[in-house]
Amino acid sequence: MMSWTAARVVPLLATAATSISSLSVAAAASNSSTSPHSGDLPSDFLTQLSQWREHHLSHPPTNGLGGNGVGPNAVLAWILAFLAASVSSAGGVGGGSLFLPILNLVAGLSLKRAATYSSFMVTGGAASNVLYNLLWNRGRVLIDYDIALLFQPCLLLGVSIGVVCNVMFPEWLITALFSLFLAFCTVKTCRAGVKIWRSESCAASAAVAVAAARHNENKEPLLVLLPAGQDGDQAAAGNGAGFPWKDVSVLVAVWLCFFLLHAFIGDKHGKGMIRITPCGIAYWLFTISQVPFSVAFTAYIIYAKRKKQLLRNQEDGKANCVETKTETMSSLILPLAAFVTGSLSGLFGIGGGLLLNPVLLQMGIPPQTAAATSSFMVLFCASMSMVQFILLGMDGIGEASVYAGICFVASVAGAVLIEKAVRKSGRVSMIVFLVTAIMALSTVIVTCFGALDVWKQYNGGAYMGFKLPC
């Protein structure tokens, strides 16, 4: 049975997740002037809501109180960002889908500027989560570096291809696909959480029965040790081998190669480290060169992984070798899943954390390992975008750093809170349910904002079909 601490923590995290959306809308509504009453048709409501949103973005709330001080909107945005980062960190997702509406509606930033700030916030939260898992997690190895190694090259390649598809696909199709995909993942993740919950309940009942039988036979104190989830598997995955410097070095090399390619390519307006004509010969050469880079890195990682496993089998003996989850999978399953995840991430224009965690859970990765590994991979993806924005001369680096610092602290709080809840209750399924809540909230936010944008384009007579990549 869940302990009283976990019973209080889970509703608290769920309430925090749902309050992010409601408080954002309430804070934005307080800045609007009047709400004229029109007809009861849904089209009239969407038109009025779209007009209010345009008015709010064209007249953003001031952050000062008659000077350079911090205004109430900035304070409220900080509070909501803290809640969003703590909940996202506890669930092992980046949180970009929650940061964007907070920065857009409450802080009054344009969507373009909010996207740059969001990369800082996701990087700060992921860095905090990774440092916590490495330094203060009581010696347990939660990050699966084999998964991170096999995922990262194809994940970054998929993001690049997804971005090209994002330019070609119409807005209404991207919004519809994203909403359906998130809804599907929400249902699948919730079912996985229910399955884990039931298995934990059965294990807890068996532990109570064993403790009761021992008490009746030996008159020992009734002491029930609830199962702590996947701690045994995580400890076995680590084997006390210390920090894997070689694996992290390979990940950094992958990061540097893709970062240089993206920095040379630049954005869609041709703004990069060097002047390259968008969709010119050099542009496509740099873009296509990502494919051999990904294939080469993935082939090397698979070869090194198999060689390491062969040496370990020869040293320890085949009978004594305990295979981890990733070792029982086909070597091509993880890169393929990473490529699909990255493509969807680039297509939908979001960070990979919201998609990585559900994918890892569906592959049978333990929830705590999935959350820690997802945060580790999100750190590489988000930091690449952040450094690119800095090199391209973005405005407001100081303000974005403040938001990143808030998310850094909030992520530690969320990680500590969820770890205590898991240790007290022995149920790692609460992480799965928290991811489900974040995905459900993101589905509502994305659907509402996407519907408004599509409605605005439709009323404005914009082209609603497919476009060329250039």
UniProtKB/TrEMBL annotation:
It is a multi-pass membrane protein. One of its GO terms (cellular component) is membrane. It holds the Pfam family TauE. It comes from the Eukaryota. Its main location: membrane. Residues 1-28 form the signal peptide. It is found in: Membrane. GO terms for biological process: proteasome-mediated ubiquitin-dependent protein catabolic process. The chain crosses the membrane at residues 75-103, 115-135, 147-165, 172-189, 248-265, 281-303, 332-356, 376-394, 400-418, 430-452. Keywords: Membrane, Signal, Transmembrane, Transmembrane helix. PANTHER family: CEREBLON, SULFITE EXPORTER TAUE_SAFE FAMILY PROTEIN 5-RELATED. Belongs to the 4-toluene sulfonate uptake permease (TSUP) (TC 2.A.102) family. This is Sulfite exporter TauE/SafE family protein. It comes from Brachypodium distachyon. The gene is LOC100827655.
